[in-house]
Amino acid sequence: MKFFNVAVVGATGAVGNEMIKILEERDFPVAKLRLLASERSLGKTLEYKGRHLPVEVLKEDSFTDVQIGLFSAGGGISEKYAPLAVQAGCVVVDNTSAFRMAPDVPLVVPEVNPEAIAQYKRRGIIANPNCSTIQMVAALKPIHDAVRIKRVVVSTYQAVSGTGKKAIEELSEQTRALLGMREPVVKVYPHRIAFNCLPQIDIFLDNGYTREEMKMVNETKKIMNDDAIAVTATTVRVPVFYAHSESINIETEKKITADEVRELLAKTPGLKVIDDPKNLRYPLAIDAAGRDETFVGRIREDESIANGINMWVVSDNLRKGAALNAVQIAEILVRDYL
Question: Which helix (H) or strand (E) holds 288?
């Protein structure tokens, strides 16, 4: 077996931590692991395979002798350092939005469009989609292949871990404050998140949608390789720590029954159908947290249109929505291309 030097950029962040954990869990062929972050993390160590590895400061020459770079430190960092990593001979799997819509950068969900990985040679970069997009297209692709999807209406209920460690801490602190009859401190989000829902993720654009919502629209079309799919999204931040939930309504060209959808999704790799409403069994964020699968339930026909399906999709946003998807891309990369 061939082994590779791997760098994790943004190693001390929530997604970076998961990347390190998943590299170990899946026994990725790592020869040497380099952990990179900002100067604030200098002196820290992170555990990998029983050893405590030092966190190094990210620099322009950090990618010497590195073959694979897993980036999750923000779009600006990726824009600056990903090209430098490529110049040093590294293939970058980038978890930020920096390159997702670049026409010469593949945007990949391994269960949906693994063939797109081959396009990495154009710029040396493969983009990891937005977390909410990943779990949605994983559930949509089998249906699209079977009966072609015309339109998607999605509402998301997204965990605070999607914003990072500071948001996780803020939800904890605000909850304790409110239960202790104290005034909560608001820093990370524009409004209090504890015991609240915020119909805003990222900034608002001129069309009235948020940037997060338009990511779902544009990324879905690119990943599914079909610009004709109509997508509209409303993204909401909810007081949940881990795992995003989505209510998805689709309209298809041909009729497909709820039972046919269940059967189709049940045999799709990476998906797990939990759909037994009579016994109150359906996907829950608390059950999806820490799991690799994307869970689908509440599958039912939309009685308001001829060819419509409703479903509820839940996935761990730090794992399948970010770190796991990136490592899965890297696995295909080393197996088939490097």
Answer: helix 285-288
Higher-scoring residue by pLDDT: 116, 1? 116
Q: Give the tokens for residue 40.
A: 């604030």
Question: Could you give the CA distance from residue 151 to residue 102 in angstroms, rounded to a whole number?
Answer: 24
> Could you tell me what percent of the chain has a pLDDT over 90?
99
Per annotation, catalytic residue among 90, 144, 197, 244: 244
Return the amino acid letter for 183: E
Domains, the chain, in order of start with CATH, read 4-129+322-336 (3.40.50.720), 132-317 (3.30.360.10)
pTM greater than 0.85 (yes/no): yes
Q: Which of 52, 90, 131, 197 is catalytic?
A: 131
Active site residue 131: yes
Spatial separation of the C-alpha atoms in residues 177 and 181, rounded to whole Å: 6
pLDDT digits (tens, 9 = 90+) for 215-244: 999 999 999 999 999 999 999 999 999 999
Taking alpha carbons only, the member of 243, 228, 223, 235 closest to residue 294 is: 243
Look at residue 1 in the predicted model and tell me its pLDDT. 84
The whole-angstrom separation of Cα 77 and Cα 215 is 19
Per-residue pLDDT at 57? 97
Percent of the chain with pLDDT over 70: 100
Show the CA angle centred on residue 72, arms to residues 5 and 265, nearest 5°. Answer: 95
